[in-house]
Amino acid sequence: MRIRTLTTGYREEEVTKALDTCPGIDPVLLSFLAWARGYAEARCEELGRAHGGPVSFGCAAIVESAAMAMASSRYLYAKAAETGNAQMFCRSAQLGTVARQHEIAAWTLAAREAPVLRAQAEAAERMARVEAILVAASAGADDAEDDAEDDAEDDAEDDAEQGTLLSSSKRAK
Hints:
- By secondary structure, the chain is an all-alpha fold.
- Helices cover 86% and strands 0% of the residues.
- The protein has helices at 12-21, 27-51, 57-83, 86-172.
- It starts with 11 loop residues before the first helix and ends with a helix.
């Protein structure tokens, strides 16, 4: 399913399902909440690209909180515009400030965690390579043992044949 922004619409399937299960929910609110989910997903990807790797679950949770605060702010702003309610405009502005603070916190956390997450990923890659080498060496050792056993058997057979030839040649003299 394609993620859409508020300017192009919302996730119709999600809104339709929510309206079917809870008919009292404002469809405008649902459209803002659906937008928030898409925004959070896109923002986490953006933070990951900016800082060189995936963001942690903690950082993603902060981004989701920012998205919810932003969606709520915009919903309240839309409702305030309809009704002219000054308190709703104020609350909308407050939620916008909360969203901005969450965005700053998510950026800061992603920047601080990025080196650690990269180091963990690199360590995991190294461990995977070491495991692969050990598995290959183990398989090679098993093959070498099999080869050594085969060589020993061949040597024993050769010795037996030479012993038989030797004893035959001694008898001939």
